[in-house]
Amino acid sequence: MTVLKEINIGESVETTLEPVSRMDLIKYSGSSGDFNPIHTIDEEAKKAGLPGIIAHGMWTMGNLAKLFTPYHEDGFIRDYNIRFSGMVFLNDVLTLKAELVDKTDRLLIFDVKATNQNHKDVVSGNLKFELN
Amino acid sequence: MYKEYIGLTSSKTRNVVERELVRRFAESIGDSHPIYIDEEAGKQSRYGKNIAPPTFPRVLRSGSIEGLKLPLKGLIHGEQIYHYERPLLVGEEVFCYSKIEDYYEKEGSTGKMGFLKMKRYGEDLNGRLIFTEESIIIITETVRRSLNV
């Protein structure tokens, strides 16, 4: 495991997810209790004026935070702010990225985002990681 | 008008951060890391326990806000903001309540957009803050008109 505190400004951590599947969203509906059918049932998504089912914004936000999970012994996520800027559809391929933009003795400040296969941001924001 | 809702607060609701819920939640965001799900890994960690993923508080209950009427359809989740004093621990009790922090409107391309800021507070048994979770919900003019507000 790398040590997050050694990261320099301008460096980033990144990972690409498997294509979004219906089962991902069914599982998230169950685990989160958000059963809004626009996330799982095609006809309901169409009735709502969407071309197809879309991922829960919180599913994407939850995924994005996992970039930091391996560093739980270095510190914890103190602040995590996200703006939902684009919809995520079935089979989209998301890339998660966190770039260090500032640091102090106690805090690492990252710009974080998830982009789709067309390089469009679907969620973006910032995250403050407090070092122990 | 939603402005009248500002300040409305729910009563505190007791929750337990249940191991099985955390495990399922972590799995559903593709993050089945031992720090969330493996008891031994939790014991070895600096917290001495497993922790919950940062977006887990969505699962907790915070009681309903009396008098608040929101449409069931057509709401847009605009932003989500978490603040933690420390990670949430598996097995601990957390007392949650929600508050309407703000409501404001902005002109958008499709008419006036309403922004409702709801914040949930999670405290320990002694009333010390563990986390806050803020959601900004966008209510479009079309939706508002259908409700006559």
From TrEMBL, chain A:
Coiled coil: none
Source superkingdom: Bacteria
Pfam families: MaoC_dehydratas
Signal peptide: none
Domain (MaoC-like): residue spans on this chain: 9-116
Name of the protein this chain belongs to: MaoC/PaaZ C-terminal domain-containing protein
TrEMBL record, chain B:
Alphabetical list of Pfam families matching this protein: FAS1_DH_region
Chain ranges of the FAS1-like dehydratase domain: 6-132
Gene3D superfamilies: Hotdog Thioesterase (3.10.129.10)
Stated name of the protein: MaoC family dehydratase N-terminal domain-containing protein
The organism's taxonomic lineage, starting at the top: Bacteria, Bacillati, Bacillota, Bacilli, Bacillales
